[in-house]
Amino acid sequence: MIKTVETTPYQDQKMGTAGIRKKVKTIIQQNYLENFVQSLFDSIGGVQGKTFVLSGDGRYYNDIAIQKIIKMSAANGMKKLIIGQNGMLSTPASSRILLKNKADGGITLTASHNPGGENGDFGIKYATSNGGQCSAQISEKIYEKTKTITSFKTLDTPDIDLSKLGIQYLDHMEIEVIDPIKDYLLMMEEIFDFDAIKKLFQSGFTFVFDAMNAVTGPYGIKIFEEVLGAPKGSVHQAKPLPDFGGLHPDPNLVYAKHLVDLMYSDHAPDFAGANDGDGDRNMILGKKFFVSPSDSLAILTDNYRYIPAYKDGIYGVAKSAATSTAVCRVAEKLNIACYEVPTGWKNFCNLMDTNRITFCGEESFGTSSSHIREKDGIWAILFWLNIIAATGKSVEQITRDFWAKYGRTYYLRFDYDGIDSNVADALMHDLEENLPSFEGKIFEGCKVSRAHPFVYHDVVDGSSTKNGLLVYFEDGARICYRLSGTGTNGATLRVYIEAYDKHNFDLNPKDVLKKYLKIAALIAQIEQRTGKTEPDLTT
Ligand code: VG1
Ligand code: CO
Q1: Is the pTM higher than 0.85?
Q2: Fewer beta carbons within 10 angstroms: which end of the chain, N or C?
Q3: Closest by alpha carbon to 65, among 29, 100, 103, 105?
């Protein structure tokens, strides 16, 4: 029985860099999720006769939210839902399933790398038929709708059993529960040289994949252990848990410190990779060696010939403006285009849809290619394994060879967390106004060559987006300022800094970037405005 439920709107359902992301406590308020989902359906002209992929990363509230959305979909006339077994799919697998089935849309229940559990975060990513997250224009339409919504439709019916593979019906809607790994694995087998990677493992190469108690654990066991033959136990923290076992499932030097400690110990394996909550981010480590994500994108691009799917050539590459310029130097050498886009994966999609780029990446541990329209954590790890298998070199050697060829871009991101939103907005506003006055000035012995906001003109849809403020120095260093669009605790100011060195590759990034951080804090008046004398998080 279809029910129309009266509701009152919430005013805070704006989507950020990657969907809507809120504290669980906010999401579980009465009709909060329903209001958002109905607004989404309404703002895209309804879902009558449409097919959607629906799943999540298994975090707390995934099971409840998915049942609500199944019932709402049926009540709104959806033709079919494709759902991963037990309501789970990684974000990259979801994009693959959406594209393979030519679905009209996709809903992924995740707050990505944000912590889970009752006191953690929950979120919804919405993808359109191109397999990528919706544009800012569509987000805006959904947000407008959420502010005035008065009712939603649902069905009064028991929950659906999502443990059973196969087809079932709810009212007129077909529900297909699928193996979450199969299609994704097939795609990886088409891209990479699995035989070469198998031989690498047979040769005694040691490996750890850390799934951070999140969605990619079962993918890791299947792909790395069962198919590629990595020893049993190579996949760590493989069981997806609603609270990620208390971990902050963000694979970086701070939140995956346990893995970093292992890799810098005397019993480190040859290689370690980690993923985030929904499996779209990756971290790459070698024995006593860390690969910065910006370098990783550049290194993968430089080594594209080793990968069967790319060996005949690649289109251009793209990076977010905040990501280091390392990949641009590779693009120049390869004589391919290098695009710079605003932060957020959706901004790469038009470039992929029009064959302008093959690879893209973000400094926030995200890399991927046009095989899907999301970043892809396991893809990045397989890419590295494939290069290692083909060259016989270690992670460190591959990276050092890269530096020797192109120079090293020292890069770090500094986050100032939990700032009052008004303070953060005023800081960015005033900094933007002051930018022109910095040009030609010398700070700490470094001369500013240019300073301006980053404005992106989408070559395909003609839209323009302003995202971040950039300060360039004559010595090749660069500062980028942005406010985060995924946090749930006040505002986070991100300061991204890079400096380029052609000859010295063994310096400590923190030492190299220290003076620029000092300049960054000074010109944005960070201490004066936020009271913070240093960043809360450096990654
Ligand atoms: C952050 C990252 C950005 C990434 C986004 C979503 O956004 O900086 O690069 O695309 O998270 O990633 P922000 O606005 O907080 O800087 V995920 O893995 O959370 O979907
Ligand atoms: Co993620």
Answers
A1: yes
A2: N
A3: 29
